[in-house]
């Protein structure tokens, strides 16, 4: 399949990514790919998991442990600035979810194919001419790390690649599905964290300035920093949309803020299936990858209701916590799908350009 997958990737680059880059910034209006060769080394699938519980009978859900180490040749140019750059190798490792839906009674039996990563994959890109690219106006604030983050997040849920296999499938519903629920995260406090700050050239060990980074898919929240405290109390609340379960997880990392490089204070990963099952979890969790430390979380699973019958009850229940969330807690969800536009007026600037 690899040669045909490469054909699809080239089509994706030229028909989707290239126009998106051109439209993102006026300085990139002459951006184009001059060569796209993904290489002969195919993608490796190191493991497959198929879900059989809590799954709609008209879909098949697969999680693929993928690994790709390829010598690519992808060249691009921005003619306006005589800029040329490219990629000569790519590595990507992570869990890709593949959803086959809807299942239908005619060939090819599957209406469409959706691909995305449940969490940010490990991505490494070996660039050529990156310095030239970052000299282009509008891009000079970027860096290699920022570009990798942008690409990685584009691959992560709720972003997805959807390929229709039959013409009558409702592609919009597959590309922009209604969330399965909302996760309300009460980021409360921690205890017995490691002291990372040192004095007198490391002889005296002090405290830490801890903060947390919370991730659900590509939704990222960062808590405030608590200065010089190994038992910090944040008492903050965040809300994240959950588009896929089973398989999606809440990821939390704690760090000690430093002037140069922030020190790692521990991590935590919680399967959202457990939260959905319990509806409410209020527990102390032991931090992973460190010798000590605990984190106190209160996690609520909120189900979307099709009517506003319970709105008054919901508004009453969130008033107690309303001051904790930066933007206030939500009582309802508005989903807006912008499909297309027609007969738009031609701008006067464009008309002047055409006439000149």
From TrEMBL:
Record's GO cellular component terms: endoplasmic reticulum membrane; plasma membrane
One annotated GO biological process: lipid transport
CDD domains: C2A_C2C_Synaptotagmin_like (cd08391)
Membrane topology: Peripheral membrane protein; Multi-pass membrane protein
GO molecular function, one term: phosphatidylcholine binding
InterPro entries referenced in this protein's UniProt entry, alphabetically: C2_dom (IPR000008), C2_domain_sf (IPR035892), Ext_Synaptotagmin_C2A (IPR037733), Extended_Synaptotagmin (IPR051634), SMP_LBD (IPR031468), Synaptotagmin_SMP (IPR039010)
Superkingdom, taxonomy of origin: Eukaryota
Domain C2, first and last residues per copy: 165-285
Compartments in which it is found: Cell membrane; Endoplasmic reticulum membrane
Residue stretches making up the SMP-LTD domain: 1-166
Keywords: Calcium, Cell membrane, Endoplasmic reticulum, Lipid transport, Lipid-binding, Membrane, Metal-binding, Repeat, Transmembrane, Transmembrane helix, Transport
Family note: Belongs to the extended synaptotagmin family.
Name the record gives this protein: ESYT2 protein
């Amino acid at each position: 399949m690899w040669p045909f997958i490469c054909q699809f990737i080239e089509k994706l680059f030229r028909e989707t990514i290239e126009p998106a880059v051109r439209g993102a910034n006026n300085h990139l209006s002459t951006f184009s790919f001059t060569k796209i060769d993904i290489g002969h080394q195919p993608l490796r699938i190191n493991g497959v998991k198929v879900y059989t519980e809590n799954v709609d009978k008209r879909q098949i859900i697969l999680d693929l442990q993928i690994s790709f180490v390829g010598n690519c040749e992808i060249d691009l140019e921005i003619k306006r600035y005589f800029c040329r750059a490219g990629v000569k190798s790519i590595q990507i490792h992570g869990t890709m979810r593949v959803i086959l839906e809807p299942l239908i009674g005619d060939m090819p039996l599957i209406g469409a194919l959706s691909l995305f990563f449940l969490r940010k994959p490990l991505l490494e890109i070996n660039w050529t001419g990156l310095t030239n690219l970052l000299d282009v106006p509008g891009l000079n604030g970027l860096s290699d790390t920022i570009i990798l983050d942008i690409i990685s997040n584009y691959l992560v849920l709720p972003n997805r690649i959807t390929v229709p296999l039959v013409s009558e499938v409702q592609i919009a519903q597959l590309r922009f599905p209604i969330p399965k629920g909302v996760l309300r995260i009460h980021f409360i406090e921690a205890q017995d964290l490691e002291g990372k700050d040192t004095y007198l050239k490391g002889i005296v060990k002090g405290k830490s300035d801890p903060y947390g980074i919370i991730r659900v898919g590509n939704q990222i929240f960062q808590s405030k920093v608590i200065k010089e405290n190994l038992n910090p109390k944040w008492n903050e609340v965040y809300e994240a949309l959950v588009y896929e379960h089973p398989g999606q997880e809440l990821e939390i990392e704690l760090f000690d803020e430093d002037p140069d490089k922030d020190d790692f204070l521990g991590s935590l990963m919680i399967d959202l299936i457990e939260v959905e099952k319990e509806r409410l979890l209020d527990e102390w969790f032991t931090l992973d990858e460190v010798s000590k430390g605990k984190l106190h979380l209160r996690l609520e699973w909120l189900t979307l209701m099709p009517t506003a019958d319970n709105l008054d009850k919901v508004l009453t229940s969130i008033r107690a916590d309303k001051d904790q969330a930066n933007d206030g807690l939500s009582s309802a969800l508005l989903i807006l799908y912008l499909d297309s536009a027609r007969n738009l007026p031609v701008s006067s600037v464009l008309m002047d350009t055409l006439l000149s």
